Amino acid sequence: MPRGWRTLLTFALGKSNDVKWSARGLLKLAPHLVLYFQNSSKARHAQISNVNAQLALHATHDHAPLIQASGSGNLISQDGFCEVYRDGRAFEAASKDTERLMSTYGVRARILDGEAFRAEEPAFLTTPAGAVHWQNCWSCNDPGGLTAAYSQLFSKRGGKHPDR
After folding, report:
1. Is residue 107 part of a domain?
2. pTM for the model
3. What is the residue range of 37's domain?
4. Residue % of the chain over a pLDDT of 70
5. Which of 3, 41, 56, 87 lies at a 20 to 30 A Cα distance from 159?
6. How far apart are CA 73 and CA 25, in angstroms?
């Protein structure tokens, strides 16, 4: 959550598309927003990020048996995914952040300049500023299909859906 007073003031005055709020909604969400704000402090955010990074690094290992048992391996690509940047400044910022994530959390990634990315992905008609290839993760070409396969596996193993 942003903590800078200028950003928060911009949100409060409705001068940003990032947040739309109403007084009624704000009152209802106030306790949650306070917790969100507290957990967004630099120290607390670092603790939470460390836990989340460990969960993310194990996600593929933890999902592999479910993917196999549900017969949904055809929906999964294990090649990671690329974030492609057209803007040089955005790519430079992403590169620095990627290096930080790699050194802090052990995330595996490759930082590719535009030419290197285009050499690997010749279907791109223009050369981007660059790309970050996240290697630890898998991607799914049909999340709804994967969810349905997991649901069928759950039922097959004796699980009961509360709405059925």
Report:
1. no
2. 0.66
3. 1-42
4. 99
5. 56
6. 42
